[in-house]
Design a protein that fits this description.
- The protein is 24% helix and 37% strand.
- The protein has 2 domains: 9-234, Rossmann fold, CATH 3.40.50.300; 247-373, no CATH class.
- The chain is of the alpha+beta class.
- A hairpin with a 2-residue loop joins strand 10 (214-219) and strand 11 (222-227).
- The longest helix is centred in the middle third of the chain and has 18 residues, at 177-194.
- The strands form 4 sheets. Strands 7-8-9-3-10-11 form a 6-stranded mixed β-sheet, sandwiched between helices.
- Bound molecules: adenosine-5'-diphosphate (ADP) and magnesium ion (MG).
- The site of adenosine-5'-diphosphate (ADP) has 10 residues, from helix 1.
Length: 382
């Protein structure tokens, strides 16, 4: 058995490729997860999230690469430690509950296995059930639960498990917003308190950014970007990553001057100085600039016209047509009184210059309205 006692990493994945009948679903993935860390896998449907988690848990074998858990090699071509000997807590989308066990006994089971007495194991289970707002279901069996309730019981059992590493495969997909919030809060608190680690797959950017210490952007089985939530949101490596991680408007404009922290843009003859970063910004040049909805404001020196308004509860989104592209501007609360079609002024606080060759001049760009509103619930294809 190969071991490496020098590491504090709970999980190390090296050059991992997993194939289905010769077609790679995960390609050359490198990833480490430290003690106490929550790493989110964020990618559209089919990007390989489930396959990667199945490989870590031991249900799929790699065709290339290695998986190390707690400094022990558990998977490589021709070598596989079975799932029950990996100490990985698993919550998959349709995770089966034992039909004969009541809810409270299901959630008490992990503590019983650790040797805790029946009374305190059940007390601990009830505490978790209360946290997830399902204590009233304690005496029911799986057949007496709705799909969403079964999922909550599966999550409660996962929280009770206290495995050194847990993998979650879109576990909140069928949960109400309220329960989802309760679960994510509890998951975070437990990871912090116990030092256990988690890998959490989701296609929901808000969930990934809000939950994780680090986020892995996956596309077609490959890692496109790996960074803190702030990095992948504010400094995406390309247009695809920008649209996957949140609402993204793209402006095409000339950068007149740039230094490390700011750049001066020429927006239809008006120069504006904004916070602006890019790994390779040279001036003067025409660039594609990412604008997040909270990086721009209504009111200011720049001209525009209101194309659409969407009320979204806590905030209202305004799509503004400008000489350099459509920009989505988020204003908190409900904003009334502005009519679609009217002239509005706006200003820009911050942008991120996307890497890559200089874009064409603004006049050659197609309308960008769809890019501005897309990407939040339905990640795009590359
Ligand atoms: P995700 O969880 O991100 O939606 P998956 O890991 O389920 O992605 O799938 C990644 C790719 O592998 C997809 O192209 C999918 O069609 C393919 N795939 C998944 N499971 C199988 C399978 N059992 N047999 C063949 N191909 C599969
Ligand atoms: Mg999946």
């Amino acid at each position: 058995m190969r071991t490496d006692s020098t590491t504090d990493d709970v999980l190390r994945v090296r050059g991992l490729t997993v194939e289905y009948e010769g077609v790679a679903a995960v390609s050359e993935v490198d990833l480490t997860v430290a003690r106490g860390e929550v790493v989110a896998l964020l990618g559209p449907s089919g990007s390989g999230k489930s396959t990667l988690l199945h490989a870590v848990a031991g249900f799929r074998s790699p065709s290339a690469g290695e998986i190390w858990l707690h400094g022990r090699l558990v998977a490589a071509p021709g070598h596989a430690v079975p799932p029950e000997r990996r100490d990985v807590g698993v919550v998959f989308q349709n995770y089966a509950l034992w039909p004969h066990l009541s809810v409270v006994d299901t959630v008490a089971y992990p503590a019983r296995r650790r040797g805790t007495g029946r009374t305190s194991a059940r007390a601990e289970a009830l505490l978790i059930l209360r946290l997830l707002d399902i204590a009233r279901l304690a005496d029911r069996r799986p057949a007496e639960l709705s799909g969403g309730e079964q999922q909550r019981v599966g999550l409660a059992r996962a929280l009770a498990r206290r495995a050194a590493l847990s993998v979650f495969d879109e576990p909140t997909a069928h949960l109400d917003t309220h329960v989802r919030g309760l679960f994510l809060e509890e998951l975070r608190a437990r990871q912090r308190d116990s030092g256990t680690a988690a890998v959490y797959a989701t296609h929901d950017a808000q969930e990934a950014l809000g939950l994780a210490d680090r986020v892995v952007l996956l596309d077609a089985g490959r890692v496109v970007q790996l960074g803190s939530p702030e990095q992948v949101y504010a400094e995406p490596v390309d247009l695809w990553a920008a649209t996957l991680t949140g609402p993204a408007s793209m402006l095409t404009t000339r950068v007149a001057r740039a230094d490390a922290e700011h750049c001066t843009l020429d927006v239809a003859g008006t120069e504006v100085r904004v916070a602006c970063k890019s790994p390779e910004l040279s001036d003067p040049s025409v660039r594609r600039l990412l604008v997040r909805p909270e990086w721009a404001r209504l009111g200011g020196a720049l001209p525009g016209r209101l194309r659409a308004v969407w009320y979204r509860g806590p905030h209202t989104d305004h799509l503004v047509e400008t000489p350099v592209g459509d920009v989505l501007i988020r204003v908190s609360g409900a904003v009334s009184g502005r009519q679609v079609g009217e002239a509005v002024s706006w200003s820009l606080d911050r942008t991120w210059a996307l890497a890559g060759p200089d874009g064409p001049p603004p006049s050659a760009q197609p309308p960008l309205s769809s890019a501005a509103s897309a990407g939040w619930s339905e990640p795009p294809r590359r």
